[in-house]
Design a protein that fits this description.
By secondary structure, this protein is an alpha+beta fold. The chain is built from 3 helices and 7 strands. The chain has a domain of 100 residues: START domain (Alpha-D-Glucose-1,6-Bisphosphate, Chain A, domain 4). The protein is globular.
Length: 152
């Protein structure tokens, strides 16, 4: 199991950062390797990603979500096994710390080698940086879902 933790400070209010993160279908605009995400319902998403030249499809389920605080998920189908949580911390009226924590199980030798040398952590760091650029350049979110999902 590989565990990744990353944080980034974004120059937008906490509600703006949170709302944008609920717009899963926009993730391909700032996450490298994410080809598409289709929202199935309020808590399920279908992902298509390309990693190391291989296309993979899987579904995730939101396991806990509280506006302006946290979004937690886990994979529920496909070969890619992972779970994680993104938390949002107000620094000031116009600045938010976004904390990303993810656990995943590398599947093949290439993924295991990549995880061993930190390629997965570098990818999450680069994605977080692109999220910062994306949301700060817009200044406003593309949408938002403010529903609550209580932990089972």
């Amino acid at each position: 199991m590989s565990t990744i933790e990353e944080s980034i400070e974004v120059d937008v209010p906490v509600s703006t950062a949170y709302n944008q993160w609920t717009q899963f279908e926009s993730f391909p605009q700032f996450m490298d390797g994410v080809d598409s995400i289709t929202q199935i319902d309020d808590t399920r998403n279908r992902w298509v990603v390309t990693v190391g030249g291989q296309t993979r499809e899987f579904e995730t389920e939101i396991t806990e979500q509280h506006p302006d605080e946290r979004i937690a998920w886990r994979s529920v189908t496909g070969d890619t096994r992972h779970a994680g949580v993104v938390t949002f911390h107000r620094i000031s009226d116009q600045q938010t710390r976004v904390m990303i924590q993810m656990d995943w199980e590398p599947e093949d030798a290439a993924e295991k080698a990549g995880a061993a040398v930190g390629a997965d952590a570098r990818q999450i760091k680069a994605d977080a940086k692109r999220f910062k650029e994306f949301i700060e350049s817009r200044g406003v979110e593309t949408g938002g879902w403010r529903g609550d999902v209580d932990q089972p």
